[in-house]
What we know:
single chain, alpha/beta, Rossmann fold, six-stranded parallel β-sheet, globular
Amino acid sequence: xxxxxxxxxxxxxxxxxxxxxxxxxxxxxxxxxxxxxxxxxxxxxxxxxxxxxxxxxxxxxxxxxxxxxxxxxxxxxxxxxxxxxxxxxxxxxxxxxxxxxxxxxxxxxxxxxxxxxxxxxxxxxxxxxxxxxxxxxxxxxxxxxxxxxxxxxxxxxxxxxxxxxxxxxxxxxxxxxxxxxxxxxxxxxxxxxxxxxxxxxxxxxxxxxxxxxxxxxxxxxxxxxxxxxxxxxxxxxxxxxxxxxxxxxxxxxxxxxxxxxxxxxxxxxxxxxxxxxxxxxxxxxxxxxxxxxxxxxxxxxxxxxxxxxxxxxxxxxxxxxxxxxxxxxxxxxxxxxxxxxxxxxxxxxxxxxxxxxxxxxxxxxxxxxxxxxxxxx
Length: 377
């Protein structure tokens, strides 16, 4: 894309991990087109990787545990300094606080922005004063910052209904992009009826439904049924589980706890079903990765998950916050034969290939970026 060659793009998120894992492909696409990519995120275990993947990385403190006016003020000041010094041609923002405070700072610096609402997060799972504050801040920050990209139709409609961003000023982005060569179709491990290996891979949060998952597994535990929790600790999240509770799961027969990894593919390959009993999502990348590798998915019937999982076709849907219903759907997977399960997995990969590949996502980004840079608007 010759129009962006020589342009400078900034990318901001509430974790370095989020940029590396979800936007690494976008960084490579921009750099291959001759653009410079600078990044701005809190320091974590992936910051060094990010500094190597992008042209530069600058640390920022983002308090993810709620609304602290003092810390949020300094977050916005950090964005102001960053934009004053770096002067990107276009600023890309992901997750709630970079979207809100990054947009405010960019507006003051006269820098165009492209905001991606990756999900509504814990502030919107239960309506309270924090929800009202978040709505007001979104409304203020995003006024005049269109178009805004969303990962699912529910969130897009929510913003329109709450007069934050009208539908006419928003666009759907088909996820974060899946590399279909990297996440290749894999044959299902040998499976007999009565056997099943379930995999959860993600952050160790209450909002991910992990308490319900462990309770459901305990209620149906039997020889041949296993659960692996591949967990990422996120201490900045208000929904983070305590270490003591997580450690207690080590005593559950058939349950295996494994620390975070940068390559989830071997774990998807060795399991029959991915399970994600989350309370709310944007568009879960882990589901797309599992489907790309032809694994059926058991997820909750909530925003984000139901965009991808179709009951009986490529997986199963259960009620959120309902350990009994989750156990019942897990039992269906246990009872299913390998041939039927492989068919579900194949349908999942077809869906990803048709709608959520790297190419599909880049096509949308390309159009949005050119419009923001005043090419072909």
